[in-house]
């Protein structure tokens, strides 16, 4: 466990981060928390700054078990993959554009029941990812089939806020969810471009 100050939507709370434990019976897809951008505000400099190249702002391939916030969150994501994939598919259909779920490993909010802390997940669209000038973020979202997979990024900011370590996971959309929304999925996919540019700064 790690003790520290953790941002929340309702302000900064002093707490202890224990291993995140998924609910015994899982969450319904409507029980996951969206921070409405609050979890991403501390990361704006790392995501979009033009003062430093993308290769210095984004760090891929770090061992997630080096930080308990990251390791526990990735295990939580794996345990809750079906519900998160359903959430991601819903965001794709709502925005009608490619994107990914994204979570700040250092951001926790009260759970739906209000008794524990849980992660928050936001939808970040491809145009927003293109603005980062990071090729891995962009290509991750341009190459998957949104009818079958949802991409999720977990990040942890550096103490300065100038850079972030990032981890990527691919979640499979449950067959029953895809089948129930197949008509709308096909309609939205028909509107997508066949290919998308990947913007880089070098």
The main sheet orders its strands as 3-9-8-4-7
Task: Give the overall average pLDDT.
Answer: 86
Q: Which ranges are low-confidence, i.e. pLDDT below 50, for 5 or more consecutive residues?
A: 1-18
Number of domains: 1
Radius of gyration: 17 Å
End-to-end CA span: 40 Å
Helicity, in percent?
Answer: 25-40%
Number of helices: 8
Tell me the total number of β-strands: 9
User: Largest sheet at a glance?
Assistant: 5 strands, mixed
Share in β-strands = 15-25%
Shape descriptor reads globular
Based on secondary structure, the structural category is alpha/beta
Q: What letter string, H or E per element, gives the SSE order? A: EEHHEHHEEEEHHEEHH
Q: Summarize this, please?
A:
By secondary structure, the protein is an alpha/beta fold. It has helices at residues 44-48, 54-57, 68-79, 81-95, 126-130, 135-142, 175-180, 182-191; strands at 2-8, 11-17, 58-60, 99-104, 109-110, 117-118, 122-125, 149-157, 164-172.
Could you characterize the architecture of this molecule?
The chain is of the alpha/beta class and 202 residues long. It has one domain. Helix content is 32%, strand content 24%. It has helices at residues 44-48, 54-57, 68-79, 81-95, 126-130, 135-142, 175-180, 182-191, and strands at 2-8, 11-17, 58-60, 99-104, 109-110, 117-118, 122-125, 149-157, 164-172. The strands form 3 sheets. A 5-stranded mixed β-sheet has the order 3-9-8-4-7. A two-stranded antiparallel ribbon has the order 1-2. A two-stranded antiparallel sheet has the order 5-6. A hairpin with a 6-residue loop joins β8 and β9. The longest helix has 15 residues, at 81-95. The termini are far apart. Mean pLDDT is 86; it is low at 1-18.
């Amino acid at each position: 466990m790690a003790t520290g100050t953790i941002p929340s939507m309702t302000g900064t709370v002093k707490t202890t981060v224990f291993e995140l434990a998924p609910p015994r019976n899982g969450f319904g897809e409507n029980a996951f928390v969206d921070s409405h951008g609050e979890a991403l505000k501390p990361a704006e400099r790392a995501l979009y700054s033009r003062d430093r190249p993308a290769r210095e702002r984004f760090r891929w391939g770090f061992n997630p078990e080096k930080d308990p916030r990251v390791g526990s969150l990735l295990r939580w994501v794996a345990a809750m993959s079906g519900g998160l994939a359903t959430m991601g598919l819903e965001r794709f259909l709502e925005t009608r554009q490619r994107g990914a779920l994204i979570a700040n490993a250092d951001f926790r909010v009260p759970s739906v029941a209000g008794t524990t802390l849980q992660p928050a997940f936001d939808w970040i669209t491809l145009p927003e990812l293109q603005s980062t000038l990071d090729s891995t973020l962009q290509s991750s979202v341009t190459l998957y089939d949104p009818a079958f997979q949802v991409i999720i990024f977990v990040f942890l900011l550096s103490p300065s806020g100038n850079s972030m370590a990032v981890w990527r996971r691919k979640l499979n959309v449950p067959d029953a969810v895809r089948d129930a929304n197949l008509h709308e999925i096909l309609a939205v996919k028909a509107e997508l471009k066949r290919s998308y540019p990947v913007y880089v700064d070098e």
